[in-house]
Design a protein that fits this description.
The complex is a heterodimer. By secondary structure, chain A is of the alpha/beta class. Chain A has helices spanning 2-16, 40-55, 64-73, 89-95, 111-118, 131-136, 165-180, 203-208, 239-250, 262-269, 279-282, 300-320, and strands spanning 24-25, 28-29, 33-34, 105-107, 154-155, 183-190, 217-225, 255-259. A four-stranded parallel β-sheet of chain A has the order 4-6-7-8, with helices on both faces. Chain A starts with a helix and ends with a helix. Chain B has a single domain, classed as ADP Ribosyl Cyclase, Chain A, domain 1 (Up-down Bundle), CATH 1.20.82.10. Chain B has helices spanning 2-44, 59-74, 83-92, 108-114, 130-139, 150-155, 184-199, 222-230, 254-265, 271-279, and strands spanning 52-53, 124-127, 173-174, 202-209, 236-244. The chains are: A alpha/beta, B mainly alpha. At the A-B interface, helix 2 and helix 12 of A face helix 2, helix 5 and strand 5 of B. Chain A: InterPro entries: ADP-ribosyl_cyclase.
Chain lengths: 321, 285
């Protein structure tokens, strides 16, 4: 009798504590994700003007304050677990601009590398180097119901609810970006990523690939980059990369796949000069001499890097004597 | 009868005179007002003309945004900096002033607010290798250039200058260095470079362009005239030189000459050693 009483009490206690809803602190819901980035408005408006005045003036005249208001309208004063991608429609319409052909770069699991390699639209224009992307890159935000302010304490993460402000933003941004891409499409994947270089459920797979415009794309090139000193878990023709290749071929695209694309590898190797994975880069014959024949092709930064390596070696050798 | 006529005529004449005088005064007053207004309009429209590109549009938003971005995401150790005040001090240094009359003292309040320490062994100076050095430091996080500090980050690629009359900022044009050296941009970078050199410690790196005809190291460049002189010999232990060459650029026999000039001006090497360096092919200090 006592046992069953205690049991029922225990069960009652367990069910009364609601694990699904977050606990409340000072009337504000406490979520598990980090809160809105401080000074969000200044950062975002500054980035907007920086983009249209300095990074990519070909975009033309845009009203950054208007775009910011449209951005806020998507999620301010609403339940932070009920924000849909379509809520950002006005924002998207105001900040849309063309993406030059052959400049689109899609990626998974190598955000920083992509940012470095694209070099603020100089080489490529990934989503983070578009006006839309610059609004959200590395930032976090959410609002709350019956409140016109941001929640700086915490925001719901994807596990707590999928329809949160940030998640929905990237969904609509990815869809839009894919629809605007044309010419040669580039995809950079991480061959050392756990779970596979091509996540079959992710922004790229679910929101970008399905929105490729077949009639505007000439071909697709995939680069599978391994971490320096990292495992070679996936590569062209294997594992999840093969799944992607098959998927794209079925859709009718002309596919090329390159393992450790040299241009990107050179960039990665800047931080690992003496690593064995970078030997292919530092042992090329042209590094032995400073003089280079002008007939040789290749990019400026690639050759300069080689000369730098040889130079640095001789400098270090002299210092150590 | 004639008396009455005379007095009425006198009265008429007086009235006429008064009317004419009033008219003249009114006309003169109106003319004066118009001329004055025009005159004022001209002075307020007087925008000085220069040869360089004008102030970047939306300068305030860009600078503020960059400041907040820097202290929030790039270098969160500086999160207590007051970006609004920093912008105000920066603006105060050049607004409504003649852009050929700017001094380092004008920027002192800004320097006091925005300077911050720099970790040792990470300073990378450059001369005539702007693009390359920034591509390098963006990817390799072992080094910091001036543009990776708050002062440099805020102003990189941006131009600005003031104008004596309203609105105080010149968006049309700004003086080039060749027109006057004491312009807001050049003085800003001199101030920031001085700070960067003074804060440098440990091993210091310099990236020079070995391909330009005038020589990779020029004593009148900012590097040659400001940064080198402000390196603190008590804090800096070693200077490493990276001499970079363009593809298909001039041959490398200039290298040694460059290094010789560099290390003698820094007094890093004694003359005999320096001469030996000149004679040795493909060897560097």
């Amino acid at each position: 009798m006592m046992k069953s009483f205690f049991l029922s009490l225990l069960v009652g206690l367990l069910f009364s504590k609601d694990y699904v809803k977050p606990t409340e602190i000072d009337g504000k819901k406490k979520w598990k994700g980090e809160g809105t980035t401080s000074n969000l408005e200044s950062i975002v408006i500054g980035r907007c003007y920086e983009y249209i005045r300095i990074v990519n003036p070909s975009v033309g005249e845009k009203n950054c304050t208007e775009i910011w208001e449209a951005f806020k309208k998507a999620f301010i004063n609403k339940d932070p677990c009920n924000i849909l991608p379509s809520d950002y429609e006005l924002f998207i319409n105001l900040s849309l601009h063309t993406i030059p052909p052959n400049k689109s770069l899609f990626w998974e699991n190598n955000h920083l590398l992509v940012t470095s390699y694209s070099d603020r639209t100089r080489r490529y224009m990934p989503l983070c180097d578009t006006l839309i992307g610059s609004f959200g890159d590395f930032l976090n935000w959410c609002g709350q119901a019956n409140d016109t302010g941001f929640n700086y304490d915490s925001c719901p993460n994807t596990e707590e609810c999928e329809n949160n402000a940030v998640e929905s933003f990237w969904k609509i941004a990815s869809i839009t970006y894919a629809k605007q891409s044309s010419g040669v499409i580039y995809i950079m994947l991480n061959g050392s990523a756990i779970g596979g270089a091509y996540p079959v459920k992710g922004f790229f797979a679910d929101y970008e690939v399905p929105n490729f415009q077949k009639d505007r794309i000439s071909r697709i090139e995939i680069w599978v980059m391994d971490d320096i000193g990292g495992p070679d878990l996936d590569s062209c023709g294997r594992g999840s990369v093969q799944i992607l290749e098959e998927r794209l071929k079925t859709m009718g695209y002309d596919i090329t796949c390159i393992d450790n694309y040299k241009s990107v590898l050179l960039l990665k190797c800047l931080d690992y000069l003496n690593h064995s994975d970078c030997s292919i880069v530092s042992s090329a014959p042209s590094t032995q001499r400073g003089l280079v024949s002008p007939a040789r092709g290749g990019s400026w930064s690639r050759l300069i890097y080689m000369i730098f390596v040889a130079f640095k070696r001789s400098v270090l050798a002299n210092f150590s004597t | 009868m004639p008396l009455q006529n005379r007095s009425s005529r006198t009265r008429q004449r007086t009235v006429l005179l008064v009317v004419i005088m009033v008219l003249i005064v009114t006309i003169v007053a109106v003319l004066a007002a118009v001329l004055l207004a025009n005159g004022m309009k001209e002075t307020s429209m007087e925008l000085l003309q220069w040869k360089g590109r004008g102030t970047t549009k939306n300068l305030q938003e860009v600078i503020l945004g960059r400041c907040y971005n820097y202290i929030t995401t790039v270098n969160p150790e500086l999160r207590d900096k007051d970006c609004q005040k920093i912008w105000e001090k920066m603006q105060k240094a050049f607004i409504y002033k003649n852009p050929c009359n700017i001094t380092i003292e004008d920027y002192q309040p800004l320097l006091d607010l925005a300077s911050h320490p720099i970790p040792c062994n990470k300073s990378l100076f450059w001369s005539k290798t702007n693009d390359l050095v920034h591509r390098y430091t963006k990817t390799n996080h072992n080094f910091l250039t001036l543009e990776d500090t708050l002062l440099g980050y805020m102003a990189d690629g941006v131009s600005w200058c003031g104008n004596p009359s309203s609105p105080g900022i010149n968006y049309e044009s700004c003086p080039k260095w060749s027109e006057c050296e004491s312009n807001p941009s050049s003085v800003y970078w001199k101030m920031a470079s001085k700070m960067f050199a003074e804060e440098a410690c440990g091993v210091v790196q310099v990236m020079l362009n070995g391909s330009i005809e005038a020589g990779a190291f020029r004593s009148n460049s900012i590097f040659g005239s400001v940064e080198i002189l402000n390196l603190d010999p008590d804090k800096v232990s070693t200077v490493q030189i990276w001499l970079m060459q363009n593809i298909g650029g001039p041959p490398s026999h200039l290298r040694n000459l460059v290094v010789f000039k560099f290390c003698t001006s820094l007094r890093l090497c004694n003359p005999t050693e320096a001469l030996q360096i000149l004679q040795r092919p493909n060897r560097f200090v």
